[in-house]
Structure formats: structure tokens, C-alpha cells
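Sorry to interrupt, but I need a hand with the structure work. Please put the record directly below this note.
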Amino acid sequence: MTEIQEYYLLDSIPWVLGYSGGKDSTAILQLVWYALKKLRPEQRHKPVHVITTDTMVENPVVSTWVAASHERMKQAAESEGMPIRPNLLLPDIRQTFWVNLIGRGYPAPRHKFRWCTERLKIMPSNRFIREVVRSSGEAMLVLGTRKAESSKRAANMDKHAQGRLRPRISPNSKLPNSLIYTPIEDWTSDDVWQFLMQVPNPWGHPNRDLVSMYRGATDDSECPLVVDTSTPTCGNSRFGCWVCTLVERDKSMEAMIRNDREKEWMTPLLNLRNELDEHDHHKRDFRRMNGRIHLYEAKEVEEVEDPDAPNGIRKVERRVTKPIPGPYLKRYREDWLRKVLLAQQEARLQAPEELRSMELIRMEELHEIRRIWREEKHEFDDRVVTIYEEMTGEKFPQALEDNRALGSDEWEMLDELCGDDDVLLDLATKLLSTTMHYQGMARRVGVYKALDKLLEQRAYESKTDAIDSALDRKARKDDLESLQLTLGSGGIEA
């Protein structure tokens, strides 16, 4: 605590403390709180901004815990004259999980397309830190990061330690004019739990409830007294987004449901998360978001009859060229919306009283999804309203001007005319919607360019035709590169 006090008093640089509600961030906030409490009131000369990023898809139990902690923290800080300022940060509504997945059709995140972390976690906190830097010139980011969390984390911290300005203070390589301070970097998980059990929570949010939450999210449902290095702890419990598909299983939610009958209401959430994690190539367009075709080579195993092979079947491996799957198709985006609303309804009916009004998807997100479907994807059948009213039995609050010349009746007519040809329906609706968009303008500058772009991107007779066109373009590009290489090396004589 002496070091924390020394660093706090050293300058006028405001502190930004990352608080997730977990054990490490709770421990670091308690240390800072007690260190500042021992200072004279006039010495508490600069703010400590406590920031929590709510991704809007956090585990509801943890999210409720953190929100309650923030409220108590605010009240305690005001009553004790502490310079601690709690801030609950949210992602931009245009960048939330459901707006991207259901609205734009982004596939569920994978390690090769991890689009969620930057938008949901990093951007909101970086935006806040930049504001602090903009108003104060600098900022000190205080984190509960520990080397014992993983070998990768330890290696990364050791790498940054080489450029340290003071013990446990390093430059922030991601954000200019900011530093990172890690007071508990050498603590073990057992050190953290021992501190939390021995030192009362200064803002009145009981640490024993935190232990219970971790215990409930652990397979063995225990946080035993550690007597040697072989004794397991509940320190490896991980809380995060309940929709996360970057892990094989949501072990913490599974354990909560299994260990506590009162948390069985989360089962619809777990089922939906597991469905998001299923193979989804058949649910996605063969074109990318911009309408273009990108190809890749894949291995396929085919079973053929062979009397000489065991069981008369021989497996033959061959390489095939396939289009890289793009966004979710319209019917699957609509299906995800139904399933989220259904999971929300089911969870609300079974959840404890304090969670009966939980929102798995917020009304602001529904409005943004509706805007994207209508204005960016030209889906003028306006299915968000229909699906919401079907699934909830409630009237959808109209926010967009509903003076469109095209609606669900026109969509159904086009659908019938196009038959089962989804490619033709997609092109026809986009051409018609784009034309109607420009019709009401005094000067229709750009209409032909917009229509040409749509025809260039989507004028295919079928998926097979699109793939053949992409293969032809690739072959011509390869031939051109080969010719350039030959000419460049002097391979063709005059």
C-alpha cells in the first residue's frame, strides 16, 4: 500500500482502474481504496476512474453482481470523500454483438475471425482512456494483471518490463500518453483469495458472495483451503460473455446450472450459446459482405466402394475449391432473432425476481438491426417488427419513418415471382429498393453507379455460376502474373 500511496502522490496524472468484478480486479481496487483512505483528505487530489466494460452479453449473474457493486461503490465513495469515480461503459450500439451477428450477419466469432473483442471490450475502454488523456494530458491505467495467470501472460509482462519507468509501471504500447501500473503482478491466485477473505470489502460488497459465485462456477463446486501446490482452487473459474464461441464450452455457466437449481433458468442461454457454436457454413451466403466471391481450397473425404478395402469401403481424399462463406443468410438472421427473443422470454419466466426484466437483446439494438436490414440490406419486408411481435406478443415501438413505397406485400410478390431462386430474389429486391431510394431525390446523381455496382457484385445466374466466374478471374490473374514474371526475367526473346 505504501507504494500505491507514493505513486498516487507523485504527480497529477489521473488513474483509470479496470474493474471486472472478478477476484483480481476486486483485490486491486481494495488495495487502492485502503491506500487512499489512509491519506489525508487534501492529499486525495486526483480522481481514480473505475471502469467496467459491459459487453451487453455478459453472464447475467455476473453482470447483476457488477452493477450492484458499482452502485455501492458510488455511495461509499461519496460518503467517505474518496476520489473514486465508478463508470459502467457500453459498446457503441452500432457495434454490439447482436447488431453485428443478427443485423449485419457476422458469423459467430472464431479464432480466425475474432471480431467481438475489439468492438465489445477494447474500443469502449480505449475511448474512455483517450478522453481522460485528452482532458488531462496523461493517464495511469491500473490493472490487476498477474504473471501467474498463464505462461503467455507472464512472457508478455516480462517483455514490457524491459522498458519500465519505475517498478511495476510500464508504457502503454497501445495508447499514447498512458502508463500501465500492475501492483499485484507477482501474486498467486491463492494470495488473491487470502487477501479477499482477510480484508473486508471497503465499499460494502461482500467478498464471501464473490467466493460463492466462483464456487458455483467451478466443476467441483469447492474453493478449498490450499495446503500445498497440488490442492486445487476455484481461482481458475472464468466469467465472460455467455455467447462466447471462442472456447469449446462455457464451463462456468454449465457448472452454475449443475451446482445450483436456482440457476437452471440459464439453460436457454446455454442452449443458444451451444447452437451458435455449431458448424454454420450452410447458414451463410456464398458471397462476402461486399458481394464478391473469395475462394479457398478444402480437403474432402469421399467414401467409394472397393471390394479389396475393409468393409468394402475406401476413403478417398481430394482437394476442392470452395467459396469462403460470408454473412448469415436472411432466413438464418431472422431465425437467430427469434431464438434470442425466445431465450429471453424463457429465462425471464424462470429467473429470480431481480432478473425478471433482464434484456438479452436491448430495444436500441433491435432498432439498429431494423435500420440495417431496411437501409443497408434493402430488406423492405421489415421483418424485425413482425418477428418481435410474434415472439413477445407486444407491439413494436415504431422509431423509423414508415413512409416507404415498398413493404412486405411487395416483398412477398417478388418472392413468389422469383420462385426458389434466392440469388435472383436478392438481386431483384436490391435493385428495386435502390431505385426507389433515389426516386424521391431532386437530383438522382449516383443512381446508375449504384445500380451498376449491384449488377457487378450480384448478377449471377446461380451459386455455381458465381464460383465459375471467380475461378475464371483467378485463372486470368494467375496467367497475367506468370506473364509479368516471365517478362521481368527476360524469358521472352525479341
Observations:
- The CA atoms of residues 436 and 442 lie 13 Å apart.
- The chain is about 50% helix and 10% strand.
- Residues 2-216 form a domain with the Rossmann fold fold (CATH 3.40.50.620).
- The radius of gyration is 28 Å.
